[in-house]
């Protein structure tokens, strides 16, 4: 069908050995990551059987992705705050696949890691922030939906852990009329509009919800620079179902080889090499083939 993207496969590549050779020959690799690179740390993804969407569906939410939908958040932020703890960054941990990004960079091969993840775990490996584009934002900062004041995201963590809605602590918030207040009070369904107007706004972590624009950095970096520099694409742990990030796969020139590392195959994009399995095991195997060290405690049992 037309909705499926078909590219001419570079027929000569198939095996993990071919993937290692492509990595070995590349200088500017784009690694596009998704929730699958963090699941081994106990952070659920969205679309697996054990993912957040399944859990939400079991709880009776008919549209699980509403949890991350802006209009739903404006109507009832408690839905998001009830579930946000599942994707809140944990301590200092990182997975072997996160470490693989750092190892790629240490070998001067990583152009950019475009991550859809909001857990902010890539930086725990020591990977430079300059190499990372957080396509869907992160919990690092948060913004008041009313007065637009930005605060460090950590100020919300206690609320998120407890599943309570966080409100703005700016003493002026709610007393100074701003453009969005009327819409806000209407969508909260408040029967007493005055109450809503003097109340402080709801804080929202700066993660990109459905219905929101992606951070400018995404387009700026990909379309103005990386699209012309990239010589290999590796997609890891993502279902590639969320646009516009998934469009990276389609937009890169067909001469750029593409590798897909995931538990399940991707049915709507055709890759040169698909390596199915647990991504931590797959990248460990690739590093082994490349003669690179991937020293991570979670991989000890493999040695
Ligand atoms: P998704 O749609 O849930 O897809 C994840 C994919 O990873 C699935 O195809 C799984 O089969 C696969 N997968 C899961 N675990 C592994 C594993 N160990 N090894 C290999 N493959 C695995 O998630 P996407 O990232 O594609 O969707 C984009 C959303 C999910 C983004 O907007 C994220 O913000 C959002 N998300 C992020 C996190 C996080 O930050 N850790 C967690 C949950 C959701």
UniProtKB/TrEMBL annotation:
**BP GO terms, sorted:** pericentric heterochromatin formation; silent mating-type cassette heterochromatin formation; siRNA-independent facultative heterochromatin formation; subtelomeric heterochromatin formation
A molecular function GO annotation: histone H3K4 deacetylase activity, NAD-dependent
One GO cellular component term: mating-type region heterochromatin
Keyword vocabulary terms for this entry: Metal-binding, NAD, Transferase, Zinc
Q: Locate the Deacetylase sirtuin-type domain: which residues?
A: 9-293
Per its UniProt record, the required cofactor names are: Zn(2+)
Can you tell me which family this protein belongs to? Belongs to the sirtuin family. Class I subfamily.
Q: What name has this protein been given in UniProt?
A: Deacetylase sirtuin-type domain-containing protein
Organism (species): Tortispora caseinolytica NRRL Y-17796
């Amino acid at each position: 069908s037309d909705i499926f993207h078909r590219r001419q496969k570079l027929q000569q590549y198939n095996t993990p050995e071919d993937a290692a050779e492509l990595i070995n020959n590349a200088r500017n690799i784009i690694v596009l990551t998704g929730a699958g690179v963090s699941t081994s740390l106990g952070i659920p993804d969205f679309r697996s059987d054990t993912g957040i969407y399944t859990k939400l569906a079991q709880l009776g939410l008919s549209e699980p992705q509403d949890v991350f939908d802006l209009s739903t958040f404006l109507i009832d932020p408690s839905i998001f705050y009830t579930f946000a703890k599942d994707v809140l960054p944990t301590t200092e941990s990182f997975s072997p696949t996160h470490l693989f990004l750092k190892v790629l960079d240490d070998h001067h091969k990583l152009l950019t890691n475009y991550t859809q993840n909001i857990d902010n775990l890539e930086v725990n490996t020591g990977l430079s922030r300059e190499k990372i584009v957080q396509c869907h934002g992160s919990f690092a900062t948060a913004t008041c939906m009313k007065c637009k004041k930005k605060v460090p995201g950590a100020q919300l963590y206690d609320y998120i852990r407890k599943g309570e809605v966080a409100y703005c602590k700016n003493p002026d918030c709610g007393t100074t009329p701003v453009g969005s207040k009327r819409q806000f009070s209407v969508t909260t369904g408040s029967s007493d509009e005055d109450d809503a107007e003097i109340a402080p706004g709801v804080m929202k972590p700066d993660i990109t919800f459905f219905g929101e624009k992606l951070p400018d950095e995404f387009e700026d970096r990909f379309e103005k620079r990386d699209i012309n520099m990239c010589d290999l694409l590796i997609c890891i742990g993502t279902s590639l179902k969320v646009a516009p990030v998934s469009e990276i796969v389609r937009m890169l020139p067909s001469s750029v080889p593409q590798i897909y590392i995931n538990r399940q195959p991707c049915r709507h994009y055709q890759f040169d090499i698909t390596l199915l399995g647990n991504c931590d095991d797959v990248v460990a195997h690739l590093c082994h083939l490349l003669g690179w060290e991937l020293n991570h405690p979670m991989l000890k049992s493999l040695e």
